[in-house]
Structures are given as C-alpha cells and as structure tokens.
Amino acid sequence: MAVDRRHTAKKKNGKGKKSSFKAKFGTFLKKIGVTNPLLQVAVPFALAMVVVTIGSCAYYNGRKATYDIRPEVNVTYDTPLTVDLFVEEGADASDCEFVSDVSVIDMSQLASYKLVVANKGHKVTTILNVVDDVPPVADPVPQQLFSLELPDPNECVENLYDKSPVTVNYAAGTDISMGGSIIVSVVLTDAYNNQTVVEVPFEVSQDLVAPLILGAHDIEFKAGNPPDFMEGITVTDDVDPEPQLIINDVEVDTNTPGLYELYYIASDAAGNETMVTVNVTVLQGDGGATTASNGIPNGPSGNQSGSNKYSSKTNADAYAAAQKVYNKICNASMNDVTKGMKIFYWVNHNISFTQYGIDYTSFASLACQAFATRRSSCYGHWACCKSMCDIAGIANRTVYRSGSNKYHVWLLCYLNGGWYHCDATPWPGYGHYFIYMMTDAELAGAPGNHRFLSSGLPARSTHSMQQYININSGTVSSSMPVIATPTPEPTESSSDSSGSSSDSSQQSSSDSSQNSEQSQQSSSTPTPTPVPDTPTPVPSSEETPASVPSSEETPAPVPEEGAE
Hints:
This protein is of the alpha+beta class. Residues 288-292 and 489-564 have low confidence and may be disordered. The strands form nine sheets. The chain has a four-stranded mixed beta sheet, with no helix packed on it. Helix 3 packs across helix 6 (378-392). Strand 3 (111-119) and strand 4 (122-131) form a beta hairpin. The radius of gyration is 36 Å and the shape is elongated. The chain has helices at 5-31, 37-66, 315-329, 336-350, 363-373, 378-392, 440-444, and strands spanning 72-76, 96-98, 111-119, 122-131, 137-140, 143-145, 157-161, 166-170, 180-190, 195-204, 212-214, 219-222, 234-236, 244-248, 258-267, 273-283, 302-303, 352-353, 359-360, 375-376, 396-400, 409-415, 418-423, 435-438, 469-470, 475-476.
C-alpha cells in the first residue's frame, strides 16, 4: 500500500513546531524560576486572562467616555426631535437631556447640527444629520399614444413630491413596440438616490392621418385694427379628440401696411402635421386707435403680471434693451457661432425661469420684461435670444413643441452652414444646461420634451458639432471646422410703427432672418439623468446648533407645467 510521505512529513513537521514552542516556553519558565509543572501549565492560562481583561476594560472605558451617547445620528426629516434618538441601543435614556438649545433646529429642513447631550450630568458632543431617506411619491398619468414614440417621462406622473430635486426616467428596457395595453415603469430618483417606481398604464395605437384645418382664408384689414385670426377656424382629426393648433403670426405687422403670410399649423398626438398658409393684407389705416401686433407664437396670451409697465413696449424698446446686453457680450471679431453661444449662454445664466407674472401682450413686452426683471417663461427666453440673434445677423426661425398641451418654443438658428436647434430655457435637475447647435437626433435625446412641428421649417443639419461645444464654459473650440456656406438672405423685416427707419432691421418680432430655403419643408418628426451629489453634513458650533446650508442649488422650475 502506497504511503504519501509528503503528507506524513507535513503532519510530523506541524507537531514538531508545536513541540518546539512548548519546549522553548518551558525553558523560558525555568529561567525565570518557574519549575513546578502545575505552574508551568497555569502561567499561560493566566496570561490569556490578562489579555481578555485588558480588552474588556478598554471597551468599557470607551463606552463610558461617551456615556451611552451616540457620536452621530441620522434622522429622517419631520421626525420629532427627542433625546432618546441619541442614546445607544439598549441604554437607559431616562437621565439624558439636551444641553444645547434645540428649539433652533428645524426638522423639516435637511441640514446638519453639532449639539451637546448630557447623561447623568456627563456632557457629550454629538452630531445630528437631518436626512432625506424617503423615496419620492407621485401619481401615474395614463397615456394614450398614437405612435411608438415615448412621451417625456415627466408627463407620465403628477403630484410629484420630495424634499430634494427628482429626476424622472423610464425603466431600462422600456419597449412599447408591441402596442396595445401596456404597463410602463417610470422611475423617480431624488438627489439622495432614493427611488420609487410608478406603474403607468399606456394604450398604444397607430395614427397615420394628419388633422384637417377648416375655415382658413385670406385676411384683409386696416392697420391698427387686426381681426381675431382664430375666428372661423376649426381643426378635426380622425383619432385625436384634441389636435393642437399653432397660429404663427410673427411675420405679420398689424400696424404697417403691406402683404404678409400667416401660417396655421395643426398636429395630432401621433405627430402628423398639416400647415395652411394664408395671405394677410394690411391696408392704410384711418388714423384711429391702433393695436400692437402680438408677435408671440401661439400659446399663453395677455398680461399676467398685474401691471401695464411692459404692455405698451414697442419692438424698438425690445431691440434697444437687447442691444445693451449684446454690446457687453459680443464684439465684431467673433464669428456667428461664438456670438450665438454668448447669447444663449447669457440668457440661460441671467434670466431665471418662472411661469408667474409674465406679460404676454407682445414680443416686445416679453423681451423688455425679461431683460429688466431677469426672469420669464420660455417665451421670454425665446424673445431675448431672438432679439439678440437678429442684432447679430444670425438667421433664425421659431420652433413649436408638438403633441402636448404644454407650450414650449425655442429657436432654429443658421450657424456654420446649417440650421441647428438652440434653446436657452433651463431644465429642472440640470443646473445651467441648455441646448446649442443640436441636430434633430441630438435634440431627441436632450432633457425636456422637444418634439416639434417641422412644417414650414427649413431642413436641419445632420452634422454634429457637439464635440466643439462647451455649454458649461460657454465656449466654442477653435478647432471647429468652418463651413464656407453663404448665410441665407433674410426676408424684409417688419418695422415697428413707432420706430425710425434705421431701426427697422432690428424691430421685427417675427422670424425675420430667413433664407431662400424657407419653402423647404421636412416631414420628419424627431422621436433623457444626473443625480445631484449628496450633501456632506458639516457640523457647526458646539453649544448652540446652527444649520449648515445644503450644497445643492435650488432646482429650476419645470418649464412644462402651466403655460409651458
């Protein structure tokens, strides 16, 4: 029978080592005078007990040093503040009390505090972190789709609530290609990475028929007395019960005699579009009272500010305000791409978003109010960007959101030989993110709902320039290849009735800079999210707790709510 000598050798070697240690330890004991065999056994045991005792004392003394008070506590916001929250589990809190004045602590706000707690008179410094560990909540909004294009996930929920900014996204792998009745998972994630999944019912069917616009006809009126362009107009669709109608009258100056074009653009929920163009003839007026042209893309109307301060502003006023800003941020040495970047960067960083108190009387009222108050809705961002682009000589067209009852507008700008999407409106949860020189495909993946009406727009460029664009610094790389394509010829600008002829090139509230490609139409309809860093608690002074402000910025309001 074979014997594994190596294994046997190892076992002998192991026993040899143990025997060698015992022999050496026995020799050591004899040297120090321990010759009794019983003592030679008892001494190692006694040494082990000493080690255990020292460890136990260290643990006891450490706990005694904190007197059962926890050095740091994380407590969910809105939790009643009681002293037992600071006591170690299983310890008696009956003799504990706050030394610091805790009346200054607001448990509804996320913050950190350093305070002192006493147990049987022994004071211990501890830290309280009021945290958000509660997932966001929201209600589902059932969706009825007539195409296989997913809507903005923000439109799938309502009554959204959380203590911190929330991003809304579809769950990974969301697929509605099978059509029919589907349950789609929408994921809500707050700034502290707390998540909730909301199940949203989808009803998906296909609609390939565009809506019909009825009642459109050529219009004639005297200067200063425009009719209601909506009078007699109806829109019907075979599937969508509420098709969207856009009246683009930004080219019509109701105060200046001339021949203009007005566009009626209808779209349904599937993105099918119809556009009807009518001629508008403005005749010489009789000198009576005039009504300024609205000059605002279809959407909110009227003065919601409660003041008439901006209602009477003219296009000349708007372009004068724009000129002051333009002169500070642009100069003649810049090319159009750099000028455009400076314009959209400035508007995004200097005009905050709000839906309230906006004067929608006219293009001029929007621009003047936004420049003066530094706040507006997306229409104010549009008006400020447009007025400065007109000054810079950058051809631009207005773009309207489609397939939604929440209005949004932005610009299509002719830059570096092509038409690109540009939108200065800030989006929630994205800080000072904005859109500049995006293609249709890039726009489809950008934050916010940017599905748009393509009827009447020139063909957009398909060449990406994003690798040369830095929206964080507002700069354009010098390595961007310059495409030597002539700038399109602008159409004749409509001058404001109160302005001089020298100002007429800057007074159009319409999409004044258009080219010979204006007649081109595209039938294509374009088909997103970082979580803010969790704030690190910073303790304040010892005796009186002071709230440490959060490092997160206040999120921008959502442009898609209300009028937007």
